[in-house]
Amino acid sequence: MIEKFMQEFVEEARETGLPVEAVAAGDESKVIFEHHFAPDLPRNIYSHTKSFLSAAVGIAAAEGKLSLEDRLADFFPDRLPEHPSPRLLSIRLKDLLTMSSGFGEAYLMGNDRRNGTGFPDYMAYMLSREVKEEPGSRFCYSTADSILAGRMLEKAVGMRLSEYLYRRLFEPMDIGFPLWENDPQGHPIGGGGMFLKIADMMKLGQLFLAGGRFRGQRLVEESWVREAAAKQIETEPDSADIWRCGYGYQFWRSPYPDSYRADGAFGQITTVLPRAGLTVSVQCPETGDFERVKRALHEIVLSRI
């Protein structure tokens, strides 16, 4: 049935000119459907990267190297301002993963980084920002939270995030070592900038669909899969966007039964549908109206599975 729905989506995309580069669907072990409207090349998956960071944190936690209750300030005491605020001192890894750090603004987003915001030291830049709200109290989407979480992981495991993910996920999942945006000091951006082909991007969804196993090999603990995918914090509702229905640990909740997604700018999406035993991915260009793609995916594929 999924092949039929996906083919209908492809035909709709052709007939109406939807801005889509590729679509794919799979179960936990194989690709069931894959279609390309553009050459099959690694592309920027933007904030879909955040969900790979989540997997890395889960692995490090299982190794006893990280805890959700770990505090940012304790990992970087020598980087703190002279008189740090109590709120800054209280930011936990959990707050960063749930986009509730308390900084209260969207920091270090793609355009900001392109414009040089935070150069040359993202850690120093963020630790100098005012923490306007109580950490953990309100969702505020900010790539800086993911960047800080990534830096905490690096400190905990003693290697760059890219190397850690390569050893723990990318190599055993046959993804290779992806091109990945780094900050001015050479730290991979925990919140974006990874380049992957759609089949490799979808492997994260397949891993989570299988409860943290990939082709039978345990890579992520099942308990972390459940926690990361669960609603950990409410997101502000948006009547115009049915996909805005809560956030986990660097995963968005989706409006389909028990479903969730990795979600990158302009339409780099992997939706995991556990009840159906399926995962569906799409990659889109930076130009065009992704809302049209979203509606077609919803109406033709995701709401029917």
UniProtKB/TrEMBL annotation:
Classification via Gene3D superfamilies = DD-peptidase/beta-lactamase superfamily (3.40.710.10)
Q: Which parts of the sequence belong to the Beta-lactamase-related domain?
A: 15-288
At the top level of its lineage, which domain of life is listed? Answer: Bacteria
For this protein, the record's Pfam families field holds: Beta-lactamase (PF00144)
Its protein name is Beta-lactamase family protein
